[in-house]
Amino acid sequence: MRRREVLSLLGGALVSWPHLADAQYVDRLHEIGVLIPLAETDPDVPPRVANFEQGLRELGWFKGRNILIHYRFAAQSDQLKASARELAAMQPDLIVAGTGMAVQALLQEATTVPIVFVTSINPVGTGFVTALQRPGGNLTGFTNNIPSIGGKWLELLKQVAPNIARVAIMFNPETATSSPSYFLPTLEAAAASIAIEPFVMPVRSPAEIEAALAELGRGQAQGLVVIPDTFVIRHRAVVIEQAARFKVPAIYPVRYFAMEGGLMSCGADMLDLYRRTPSYVDRILRGSKPADLPVQAPSKVDLVVNLRAAEALGLSVPRIVIARANEVIE
Amino acid sequence: MRAPVDEWSSDRGPQGLEGSRGPLFRKYVGLFVAVVAVALMASGLLDMWFSYREQRVLLLNTQREQASAAAARIGQFVEEIERQMGWMTQLPWSTTSIDDWRFDAVRLQHHVPAITEVALIDAAGREQMLISRVAADVIGSQIDYSQHPKFVEAMANKHYYGPLYFRRESEPYMTIAIAGARREYGVVVAEVNLKFIWDVVSQIKVGNRGKAYVLDANGRLIAHPDINPVLRNTDLSHLAQVKAAREGGSAAAWDDRVVNDIQGERVLAAFSPVSSLGWLLFVELPVVEAYAPIYASLMRSGVLFVAALSLAVLAGMFLARRMVVPIRALRDGAARIGSGDLNQRITIKTGDELEALGNQFNSMAAQLQDSHATLERKVEERTQQLEMANLAKSRFLAAASHDLRQPLHALGLFVAQLRPDMSAQERGRVVERINASVAAMNELFNALLDISKLDAGGLTPNVANFPVAQLLQRIESTFAEPAREKGVTLRVLPSNAWVRSDFILLERILFNLVSNAVRYTVRGGVVVACRGRGEQLRIEIWDTGPGIAEDHRQAIFSEFYRVGEPDQRSGLGLGLAIVDRLSALLGLPIELTSVVGKGSRFTVVASRAPAQVLAPERAVAAVAPIEVSRGKLIVVIDDDAPVLDGMRGLLCSWGCRVVSGDTAVAALKGLGARGPAPDLVISDYRLSDGQTGIEAIEQVRREFGNAIPAFLISGDTHSEPLHQARANGLHLLHKPVDPMTLRAMVNGMVRKRAVMDAAG
């Protein structure tokens, strides 16, 4: 009957009326990839992961509930390449890249997935972004470098080892493509007022590291500044060991150097960056475009002083340095 | 008996209004739907209006709270910085304690992560120390800031808040300078990273697309979820909400107008001031999102409205149909009944007034049927009666013609016996017999005439008081001789009573009764007596006749009914019928008592009248009645030649002189040249040239003077001639006229004239 048809039609329309509720995007399960160019067993990985997930939780993202995180760890470059391909193929909502190298690997996959880099030495220089305040592309993130930090490094070294006259700046030219140009100018500018003479020390292999450090140790009143460089970071054990062996006071850019026996480290707080990255993850997942999110500089500078190493070097750390330190290892 | 009832309650209407879609139906449905629609719409709109307002208020309150909370956080942030910085302003600058100063600065930086650099400016405005987190410290630079606002204002106002600037193109910073308690303590300047504020602002969750932002005292953006307007140093002081906030109204008093945001989108805005800085924190929510629930509700209401309207249409159709179908049944049933089909019955079973109405219609139809049936029955009865009456009339005619034939037959026989060579005695005897036959025929005709007159209602009783003795005397004189001839004694007992009635008609009744009594009594006698009883005068006629059986008593009063052997009868049985009618006319009941074999007694119950003195009899001129008409001139007008001839002959035999004519003109011509006026005019009522007898008499009277006595003779038994005659003061005799009667009338008329002449 005509009547019944009409009634059923109306009833159906009423029942199946699409909700005019707000688009609850957080109801949907989001997927992100995290690519960290460190071995999974690296001792620095767990705190990074912990900080990252902590930051996510603070913003309302709970692993397994409304977000899925695919971690990939790769110590070698070919492993990095493979992991990058794997993550790109998954087509997640975005990928977090631990360093600039990870970003490079991902970029080679020509993926359109937004990328947030936790650290990047020179995002503009390496072409990740067009400008720091306006990335303009599909990438954004944080830099962990402060150009002026070079001055601090020298100042600290001088305060700890007052009789240093020359400082070597160690890096691998093949891996540290942008670091030298990034840090050297300020280093050199600061060196004058601190009465330290800086010079460049490129290394390309662990053997060279050893040789370089041996040479530093031979000459008196020489110190070491390590600028951010994946090669050196990878071989940090060698550097630390040889520096200690040859009694070279050194200052490093990342904290785990100091944790593992280096004299001092002063640099951006990587863990803090891992804690701050979720803010960009959150914003991008909620609809912001990476192009509109400016590249953030680190806000926390982390000074770690290893007193034991100082003692082994026969150095006494002044009060002011200890006061400055975030962490003192005894 | 009623025909089977025809039930009629379908909704197949007559031509003109098809099915259930008539105007009444549409009206009801329309009305119903309109009512429902109006109610729903009104309720829905009201509901929406109120929920819209409530929603707005709710949202704004939420936003205000968010703004307050965030502003509080930012305020605290800045206050804490200042407080910490304040520790460094406790002592005047001195070069002796650079390390201590350094320590203080480092400690400050520890406590306040947001401070990237802290500088000390001495009382003279020279920078003495710059401790940096990210760069090498600078000691004793002696840079002169004595003119710089950060020094000048801090010295003046105790604190200085620098404008927003950016480091490394994207890091928001501002300079905060605090002066010491005393002038000589100098100024502490900190470069504060405002990213924290940016984080606070970014993290304020305002719906899905809402946002918060901070403006400085000049209306410029300090923090915004999108850094670009901040970088561009956007000035938002033109926005309505900014103006209102800067005008200093309290956040609570800001009314919930819808305003435009940076991009010109319409938003709900709430704000909160950030303590001492004079900053403003705004929380905005796009109106579209704010009202999304309301729009959703509007959609739902709309759908509901449509659904309910459809339901209302259906319900309305259903209800209207229930209402309209019985009404239609009523209308059609009434139309049917009205068009004459009374067998229709309307069936409505709705259990309400409509059903009652239908039942009323049905009972009305039933009553109509009943009255029809009654009418038909009555018509049938009347028809039957008429038929019976017709039958009776036919029988009457048959009997009358039968009874007429007897004397007529006898008459013919007697006339045939007349021979010129008969002896006078024989002739006398035959003539006597002829007369008897004629008399019998006259009697019959008179009786017929009487019945006819009575039936036509042409008689009006002429009631008067008179002594009953006059009647008794006439009875005696009339019936004495016939009784004696029959060998029956007749005794009329005298009475002094007076009676009130019509003399002639009462006489008639009594004559008939006595006549019957005499006729039917073979031996014995008839007694007529009067007995007074109170108001009544009972006139009794006893006879010793055969008596009348019980079952005949009523029937004898009908026409032609005759009891007894056929050979004993004579005359028609009309006598009692006439008596019956007259008694009804005069209102005199007639009682009958009879014993078969012994006799009968008829009683006429009349009203007594008070006795009066008898008026002296009028002196009557001593003129022999028989002879009074001798030699008089009588004009006879009749268009029937034989009748005319007969009349002339009879009148001449009485010694009158006769002039006759078939018309008044002819009669006048006959009179014509002769001088004397006639003494009497006798005219037939119906004359040949359409003239009535009355007119003829008038003509003659005109010719000779009015006083000529006249009377009419008519063959009509209608009441019309009688009326006309009476109206003109003329007597009327009906044909056939008994010669004696004729002679009496003639004599009477002439005598009257003579008396008048004698008197006058």
How many helices of chain B? The count is: 18
Mean pLDDT of chain A: 83
Mean pLDDT of chain B: 81
Count of distinct strands of chain A: 12
What would you say this structure looks like, in words?
The complex is a heterodimer of chains A (330) and B (760). By secondary structure, chain A is of the alpha/beta class. Chain A has 13 helices and twelve strands. In chain A, the strands form two sheets. Chain A has a seven-stranded mixed beta sheet, sandwiched between helices. A five-stranded parallel beta sheet of chain A has the order 2-1-3-4-5, sandwiched between helices. Residues 12-26 of chain A have low confidence and may be disordered. Helix content of chain B is 49%, strand content 19%. The radius of gyration of chain B is 72 Å and the shape is rod-shaped. Classes of the chains: A alpha/beta (330), B alpha+beta (760). The interface between A and B is large, with 45 and 46 residues.
Short note summarizing the structure:
With 330 residues, chain A is of the alpha/beta class. Chain A contains 13 helices and twelve strands.
Give the topology, please:
The complex is a heterodimer of chains A (330) and B (760).
Chain A: H1 2-15, E1 30-36, H2 45-58, E2 67-73, H3 77-90, E3 94-97, H4 100-108, E4 115-117, E5 139-141, H5 149-160, E6 166-171, H6 179-194, E7 197-202, H7 206-218, E8 222-226, H8 230-234, H9 236-245, E9 250-252, H10 255-259, E10 264-268, H11 270-285, E11 301-306, H12 307-313, H13 319-324, E12 327-329
Parallel strand pairs in A: 1-2, 1-3, 3-4, 4-5, 6-7, 6-8, 8-9, 9-10, 11-12
Antiparallel strand pairs in A: 10-11
Chain B: E1 6-8, H1 23-86, H2 98-111, E2 115-121, E3 127-132, E4 138-139, H3 149-157, E5 159-161, E6 165-167, E7 171-179, E8 187-193, H4 195-203, E9 211-215, E10 221-223, H5 227-231, H6 240-246, E11 258-260, E12 266-274, E13 279-286, H7 287-290, H8 292-338, E14 344-346, H9 353-417, H10 424-456, E15 463-467, H11 468-486, E16 489-492, E17 498-502, H12 503-520, E18 525-533, E19 536-543, H13 574-586, E20 590-595, E21 599-609, E22 633-637, H14 641-653, E23 657-661, H15 664-671, E24 680-684, H16 693-704, E25 710-714, H17 719-727, E26 731-734, H18 739-759
Parallel strand pairs in B: 1-14, 16-18, 22-23, 22-24, 24-25, 25-26
Antiparallel strand pairs in B: 2-3, 2-8, 3-4, 5-7, 6-7, 7-8, 9-10, 9-13, 11-12, 12-13, 15-17, 17-21, 18-19, 19-21, 20-21
